[in-house]
Every structure is written in structure tokens, then in C-alpha cells.
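Quick one, C-alpha cells below. Sequence please?
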């Protein structure tokens, strides 16, 4: 018996809330791409400044060793950067 095309609902049409999940995944991929680009093309100081502007209260709630890891620097380097600013 040959397969017939058409007549079967697509996953997008039959799954409620599929669109918001797709949009969320798209935003996540875009953010990952931006973060990778920033990690490659910006200095540690520039990455620090951008993250402070994007997440002002982030530095009050998260331990510094985790922030250093997020920025791709050592804790000592992060301390030097913070001291300068």
C-alpha cells in the first residue's frame, strides 16, 4: 500500500504551543551565536562591561567564580577588571 501525502496533520498544526517553543529556540540560538561572537572578538574588559549593562543585578546574586567562568576569564583577571572600573 503506497503512502499518501496530505490528510495527516503536521506536528506544528496538531501540537498546541509549538510556535512559542520554536521562537524560544530561535532566540536561544541567536543568543548563543552572539555570545560566541563576543567571546572571540571582544576583550575580557569589553565582555565584562557588556554583561554589566545587560544584567545589572547579576553581579549581586551570582558568585564571582561563576561570572568569571561565564566571561571566559580567571577569577584573578575578573578581580583586576573590576578594580579598574
Amino acid at each position: 500500500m503506497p503512502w499518501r501525502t496530505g490528510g495527516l496533520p503536521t506536528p506544528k498544526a496538531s501540537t498546541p504551543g509549538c510556535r512559542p517553543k520554536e521562537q524560544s529556540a530561535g532566540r536561544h540560538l541567536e543568543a548563543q551565536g552572539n555570545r560566541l561572537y563576543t567571546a572571540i572578538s571582544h576583550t575580557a574588559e569589553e565582555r565584562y562591561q557588556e554583561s554589566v549593562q545587560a544584567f545589572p543585578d547579576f553581579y549581586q546574586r551570582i558568585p564571582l567564580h561563576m561570572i568569571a567562568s561565564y566571561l571566559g576569564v580567571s577569577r584573578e583577571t575578573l578581580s583586576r577588571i573590576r578594580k579598574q572600573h
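Residues 43-85 form one domain. The chain is about 70% helix and 0% strand.
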